[in-house]
Amino acid sequence: MTVAGAVDDDLWSAIGDPTRRRLLDLLLLEEAGTATSLSQQLPVTRQAVAKHLGVLDRVGLVHGTPAGREKRYRVDDAQLARAVAQLASVGSAWDARLRRIKRIAEAIQVARQD
To answer: DSSP state, 33?
Structure first.
């Protein structure tokens, strides 16, 4: 399987948004939160936070459970671990590409010196 085939585009699209990354950070620190409690820590409205949480929920990074009139969200550790593994895989592939580029550049430099 190629690196591109192993990467979940929906997952990375969700993580690509800085507000959603900040929400994940807050949920990891606090273990759980509602749209209201999380919006108090961000420069966006409660409605915007709720929409961002919905995106994270759809890709499985968080799960909401009813808590009165709201939902209390928690990070899904297994899905987060999957995202981290994908990132490591992409990082390794790019490291290999950069090493190859470096070898080619060094070979060109040596050839010019001869």
So the answer is: B
Rounded to whole angstroms, how far apart are CA atoms 113 and 54?
A: 59
Domain tally, the chain: 1
- 102: CATH: 1.10.10.10
Collapsing DSSP states into helix, strand and coil, what is residue 94?
helix
46 pLDDT more than 50: yes
Q: Which helix (H) or strand (E) holds 109?
A: helix 77-113
Q: What is the pLDDT of residues 48-58, one digit of tens each?
A: 999 999 999 99
Tokens matching residue 8: 């979940």
Mean local confidence (pLDDT), 1-10: 56
**Rounded to whole angstroms, what are the CA distances from 67 to 35, 60, 99?**
11, 19, 51
**Residue entry with tokens 């009165």:** 68
Residue 24 carries which side chain, given as an amino acid letter? L
Domain span at residue 99?
A: 3-113
pLDDT at 28 exceeding the cut of 80: yes
pLDDT exceeds cutoff 90 at 85 = no
* Separation of alpha carbons 57 and 76, rounded Å: 9
